[in-house]
Amino acid sequence: MFPVFPVISYSRFVQRPRLNPPNLPPPSSVITKASLVQFTITAVIGLSLRVLYLRQISSDIFTRNLIIDAKFYDEWALGLLRGAWNSKEVFHQDPLYAYFLAGCYAIFGHEPSMVRFVQALLDVGTLGLLYVLGSMLFNARTGVIAALLAALYGPMVYYC
Fold first, then answer.
1. How many other C-beta atoms are found inside a 10 Å radius of the C-beta of residue 22?
2. Where are the domains of the chain?
3. Which of 110, 113, 121, 131 could form a disulfide linkage to 143, CB 3.0–4.6 angstroms apart?
């Protein structure tokens, strides 16, 4: 026989703190024209760095010849475009990126360099989100600084 332990509810003994969302001001009340100009300059710097990086790696052998994960996702996206989207197998890797690639290939053709450019644009969108978040939580200057740091952050440029 196994001993039977009484079930005790600890919820009546423990006071849990209530997590109320902070009262954040709307972005329009925090973001000024001057900070918007500063962010635009930051976004241009970020996009320029990413385009320069993409230009530099365009002649690299690993950029022209896809290997490992890049090849796997490329073949998966091409299969999706051929109509093999209803698989009975379990996904070995996350499927969203394959669908993203298939969408880019449907628009631009089988051109991995265009996919990298679209990813660079999305990365600049991340800078915009950082700017808005920093502006709402702190002030517009903090938003610009956060976006600038992210624009210059090497791994973010490398993985764009």
1. 7
2. 29-158
3. 131
